[in-house]
Specification:
single chain; 23 strands; 236 residues; 4-stranded antiparallel beta sheet; mainly beta
Length: 236
């Protein structure tokens, strides 16, 4: 799922993009059929009408209920994220790379790739200030990149023992939470990359998603169908 203002977008096994009105708590008439099985979806949180969807070998762009662009790719796309200002789209691949694109309103332009991960990139998240991109992989490792400089900021966010499923930054872009199939949630620091806050066995059966409810409260949900939250005291 992806959230933009009061709209929620989802994709599923029916190969269809659907829109939910959060205020009415119901689906809108919007439904866009894709030509292949979707593997991920992303949009900008601040009211954008542009939604990006990955299938195994393509990136699709949907606007106002219409599929307006499809970019075939020669890798297996596994994860996707969009920068807060909508300027950059990142696609993680099973080939361990992160591919970067810019959307100009008509097409996606290839602007580079990031290559410091060592396993398939299973989760991506841009920091709200647009400076950093966290890339979690199927081996449980997280690499943080400088988006503008196209270089690694840190590879020291190490603690998980299984595939990273979700990443979420705090609004101040200083900390990032991660969830994994290993059932654990970690909170990481960009300023102090060797310091982390582990929440072990956070979600029985594995973590599917993490998100911040406030500046100091993180939530996680997963295989057991429950949502749990934890108050975090950051390291001084």
């Amino acid at each position: 799922m992806a959230v933009s203002s009061q709209k929620i977008y989802s994709v599923g096994f029916d190969d269809t993009v659907r829109e939910i009105d959060a205020d009415k708590r119901d689906f809108t008439p919007l439904a866009v059929s894709l030509t292949s099985q979707p593997r991920g979806i992303a949009t900008v949180a601040s009211g954008s009408n542009t939604v990006y969807i990955i299938s195994e070998n393509a990136v699709h762009v949907v606007q106002d209920g219409q599929q307006v662009f499809t970019l075939p790719v020669n890798y297996k796309a596994a994860s996707i994220a969009v920068a807060t200002d909508g300027s950059t789209v990142a696609v993680g691949s099973d080939d361990t790379k992160v591919y970067l694109y810019e959307w100009d309103g008509q097409g996606l332009r290839d602007v580079g790739k990031l290559e410091s991960n060592r396993a398939g990139v299973s989760a991506l998240s841009f920091s709200p200030d647009g400076v950093a991109l966290a890339a979690g992989d199927s081996a449980g490792k997280i690499v943080v990149y400088d988006v503008k400089e196209r270089k690694m900021l840190t590879s020291r966010w190490v603690g998980h023992s299984g595939r990273i499923t979700s990443l979420a930054w705090t609004n101040d872009s200083k900390h990032c939470a991660s969830g994994s199939v290993d059932t654990h949630v970690y909170v990481w620091s960009l300023v102090k990359p060797l310091r982390n806050i582990p929440i072990r066995n956070a979600v029985p059966g594995g973590v599917s998603v993490v998100t911040w409810l406030s500046a100091t409260t993180v939530a996680g949900a997963g295989a057991d169908g429950c949502v749990r939250s934890w108050d975090i005291q950051f390291h001084a």
